[in-house]
Design brief:
single chain; 382 residues; alpha/beta; eight-stranded mixed beta sheet
Length: 382
């Protein structure tokens, strides 16, 4: 909930901008730290969700590690103060220069997705005369039951190593002197809200644990990735950390001395952020009214890219309820945030909040149409 006092201060700011409520972020982090501490789980924040420097420093203050999918993300994490020994480098297409830099930085682990990638890491580690730790990202063939663009654990996915390839992987690793296999890694998708999906993942993890044990392979780290979703319809609702961690604790059979690692992003940062925009025009169409706002798909691409839903609020009107298509100014028909939604009677100059935009909002912003990038404002600055 954005207070009336805060809304009144928006009038002095240039829109559009991201508004981050630090009380929500700190409450989320407090709960996450408590639940992960009770379970003994290790947390690596996924920078791809939001790499705003101030956000990173706040998350760092809780002692979490970082999950990165590019060298620039690793560099941003290190600059923010994250210990390289708590940084995991994931991603299906790591370039040579990214791998070289990560080895030199002394990161904790590479999450590897193919034999060719492992071979390149071995060659580059050999040149630096270093031994690097890796985890195998395994495709467990679990359908995340989410949007097809953010489902990553099915058979025809570019991500992960298939189980039938694992014997070949172990044979290849047996010839490598600069790689140490320490773990197995999974990431089946994003915005997962059905706990049954994670329960299916746990069953596959247990089967694979037995497979490695039968081959005398010591797995020290089980990394279940991220994917825990948030409630976009109810932006003031906290993530389901307790249910999620209890399920992992109850259904994954960890061996003695094993660590369980997680890489949440959206669930940490999603609910604390809102995209604040101003209404430019109300335009009458044939069958609908358009509320044209000054934020566009360049500021928040999720609705255009995934047909994603965000709750939209008019912060400055208490009038009668009408239905609007809320659209942006970009020269694309897909630049639409919502169709035929109920809002109080909306006028030019009203402030619009697109809620639950803390994750994959600012991080995915672009300068298409040569638009300026949106700014960021924090609640303690108001």
């Amino acid at each position: 909930m954005i207070s009336k006092t805060t809304i009144s201060k928006f009038r002095d700011l240039e829109t559009p901008f991201y508004y981050y409520d630090l009380s929500v972020l700190n409450s989320t982090l407090k709960t996450l730290k408590k639940e992960s501490g009770n379970s003994g789980f290790k947390i690596h924040y996924a920078l791809k969700a939001n790499a705003n420097p101030r956000i990173l420093k706040i998350i760092l203050s809780q002692g979490f590690g970082a999950d990165c999918v590019s060298w620039n993300e690793i560099a941003a994490a290190i600059k923010a103060g994250f210990d390289p020994s708590k940084i995991v480098f994931a991603g299906v297409g790591k370039s040579d220069i990214e791998i070289k830099n990560a080895i030199k930085a002394g990161i904790f682990c590479f999450n590897c997705e193919s034999i060719p990638e492992i071979e390149v890491i071995e060659q580059l580690a050999s040149k630096q005369k270093k031994t690097v730790q890796i985890a195998l990202r395994i495709n467990p063939l679990v359908d995340a039951h989410t949007h097809k663009y953010i489902t990553t654990g099915i058979e025809e996915s570019k991500f992960g190593i298939h189980t039938w390839e694992l014997d070949n992987v172990l044979r290849a690793l047996s010839t490598m002197k600069h790689i140490e296999l320490i773990g197995i890694h999974f990431h089946i998708g994003s915005q997962i809200t059905k706990m049954s999906v994670f329960q299916s993942l746990c069953a596959h993890i247990n089967e694979l644990q037995d497979w490695f044990t039968n081959r005398s392979v010591d797995i020290k780290v089980v990394n279940v990735g991220g994917g825990l979703g948030i409630d976009y319809e109810n932006p003031d609702k906290a993530p389901m950390f307790t249910e999620y961690f209890n399920l992992l604790h109850d259904f994954i059979d960890l061996k003695h001395g094993q660590e369980l690692h997680l890489e949440p992003g959206r669930s940490i940062i999603g609910q604390c952020g809102s995209l604040i925009s101003k209404v430019l025009y109300i335009k009458n169409g044939c069958n609908t009214m358009f509320a044209i706002i000054d934020a566009g798909m360049t500021d928040l691409i999720r609705p255009a890219l995934y047909q994603a839903h965000h709750k939209i609020e008019n912060l400055t009107s208490k009038g009668s309820i009408y239905r609007y298509d809320v659209v942006g100014p970009i020269c694309e028909s897909s630049d639409t945030f919502a169709k035929f939604i109920e809002l109080p009677e909306t006028h030019r100059g009203d402030f619009i909040a697109i809620r639950s935009a803390g994750a994959y909002g600012e991080a995915m912003a672009s300068r298409y149409n040569l638009r300026d990038l949106p700014g960021s404002v924090f609640s303690d600055e108001m």
